[in-house]
Amino acid sequence: MPGLLPRAFYERPTEQVARDLLGKVIVRRTGQPAILRARIVEVEAYLGVADAASHARRGPTPRAAIMFGAAGHAYVYFVYGMHHCLNFVTEPEGVAGAVLIRAAEPVEPAEPVDDGFPPIALQGPGKLCRGLSITLADKGVDVCAPGVLHVIDDGTPRPRLASSARIGVDYSGPRWSRRRLRFFVPDSPAVSGSARFSRASASRCR
DNA sequence: CAGCGGATGTGCT
DNA sequence: GCACATCCGCTGG
Predict the structure, then answer these.
(1) Which of A36, A56, A100, A206 could cross-link to A44 by cystine, CB 3.0-4.6 Å?
(2) What positions of strand C are covered by protein, i.e. any atom < 7 Å from a CB?
(3) Can you give the distance from the CA of residue A59 to the C1' of nucleotide B3 in angstroms?
């Protein structure tokens, strides 16, 4: 169904929402007349209190409480003193879950304009937020209504997708760090380098 | 309230 | 491949 993704889309098992977000388009309004569109090509599922890699593992702390709240809201956090990361909250209210958006491809307008600026880099969760000007100010935004940030299905066919372990969560121990909760479009040049390694062993899903 | 380390990215060796 | 930038959330005392 093309159009704005409704709350029911997010209010499902996190792993399923993660897969289904691949190929969907983030629509970002940044103040000016500027509207940026970006097709999601890499995501990770972060589950509830049992997931040792998830911010929800310690329960509803001030930072992570939003992961326990209503689906379809933006969870933005700040890491390493310099980067923001964008997630969408999943699962019914009271159940924690979120999908981290790791990479996207800029959606070119019908008439590509050469304004002298390089294309916006959206490969990697930190760069994606930089490119879309997403900060902590966007934490809590309802992405189920057209506004500063929402997501649409533009009707393009579901892309071929693959899975791997999540990136940078070794601290959570083998049980959770090795689980294949990262999903990506292997054909996309925007998917980070380690994916090229994963590409060979990546399992095809669906 | 001090200390620690992170769902990252870049640049140099 | 590894150091490091740079700040905040969380833990433990």
Answers:
(1) A100
(2) 5-11
(3) 22
Q: Kind and range of the H or E element at A34? A: none
Long-range CB contacts for residues A7-12, cutoff 8 Å, separation at least 24: A7/A70, A7/A71, A7/A72, A7/A144, A9/A72, A10/A71, A10/A72, A10/A88, A10/A89, A10/A90, A10/A144, A11/A71, A11/A72, A11/A90, A11/A91, A11/A92, A12/A90, A12/A91
Task: Kindly give the parts of chain A with pLDDT less than 70.
Answer: 112, 192-206
Among the listed residues A181, A142, A143, the one whose alpha carbon sits nearest the alpha carbon of residue A165: A181
| Residue A122, nucleotide of least CA–C1' distance | B9
Q: Report the length, in residues, of chain A.
A: 206
pLDDT tens per residue across span A18-46? 999 999 999 999 877 789 999 999 999 99
